[in-house]
Amino acid sequence: MDGIPDYGHLYEVLIRAGELARVVSQSGLREFRSAHVIPPNGTEVLREITQRVGQDIFRRSLIDYWGGRCAVTGFDVVELLRASHIKPWSVCGSDIERLDVFNGLLLVPHLDALFDRGLLTFSDEGALLRSPTLGSEQWEALGLADRRLRLLSVAGGHRTYLAWHRTNLFRDCSVGSVDG
């Protein structure tokens, strides 16, 4: 037997591995049970939810408007792209704002997450503005260090929503290009 000094040592290792497996597999279940009242159907529960009616229409409209491509990178695998509201659905004043194609960008997931959290935004001309909340190493790791990144196009209808995003969501002390 290569690598194992003797059968006695192997036996001890296997016994210890079995003990650890039982402890580890049960600890997660114990933690879950202590933190949750388990419903009669086990780990699933039936919930009544409020669903966004029209979200599918909004997404299809953005796919058509942006030609099935990310509004910044041009990435064209539609099933991976996200229909992102510039002014979030929850704060829109009307259904018209919620479904307005100019209140939306089709984005790759990491740009969508950064945009939704106010870590990046866009100027009225479409230039990508980065929040100083993240450092240059983080922007580099995300592939967003290039200061020339921008929206592929900006229509007049986008500008009101982009201004709202810069004013209300963007984490910056000033509007304009950000170092970092």
From TrEMBL:
It comes from the Bacteria. Residues 70-122 form the HNH nuclease domain. InterPro entries: HNH_nuc (IPR003615). It holds the Pfam family HNH_2. This is HNH nuclease domain-containing protein. It comes from Zoogloea dura. The lineage of its organism: Bacteria, Pseudomonadati, Pseudomonadota, Betaproteobacteria, Rhodocyclales.
